[in-house]
Amino acid sequence: MRYRAFADEVRRLGIEIPESGATVIFGMPMPKSWSKKKKAVFLGKAHQQKPDIDNLLKAILDAIFKDDSGVWDIHAVKIWADVGYIEVLSNRDK
Q1: In the predicted model, what is the mean pLDDT of the chain?
Q2: How far is Cα 79 from Cα 65, in angstroms, rounded to an integer?
């Protein structure tokens, strides 16, 4: 159910990923229960908890492409953020 809602949101936002040269940044929201001090420490740092990055990347590719076999060069990063987001950078954005 959550997977389908995620895919629907990706399509609604019009997120696009090129077949090569993309970096996908997953900003993972910090728990509301964390203190402001803890949030300040973790903001922008590596998110090393579930969901796994390969599952996030598979979910977004499946939502965007009917057949994602043409995607051959992609980089993905998962970091802590104040609010959840997905950002896609291509070679021309770098």
Answers
A1: 92
A2: 24
Please name which of 68, 54, 81 lies closest in space to residue 20, comparing C-alpha atoms.
68
- The domain segmentation of the chain, as residue ranges, is 2-93
Contact 34, 85 (CB under 8 A): no
Instruction: With both helix axes pointing from N to C terminus, report the angle between 2-13 and 53-64 in degrees, rounded to the nearest 10.
Output: 60
Contacting residues for 64 by C-beta, under 8 A, at least 6 apart: 10, 11, 15, 16, 17
80 in Cβ contact with 44 (< 8 Å): yes
Question: Within 13 A of 74's CA, how many CA atoms are on the CB side?
Answer: 22
- Nearest residue to 53 via CA among 30, 21, 86, 20: 86
Predicted confidence at residue 87, as pLDDT, reads: 95
The confidence score (pLDDT) of residue 2 equals 82
The yes-or-no verdict on residue 51 having pLDDT over 60 is: yes
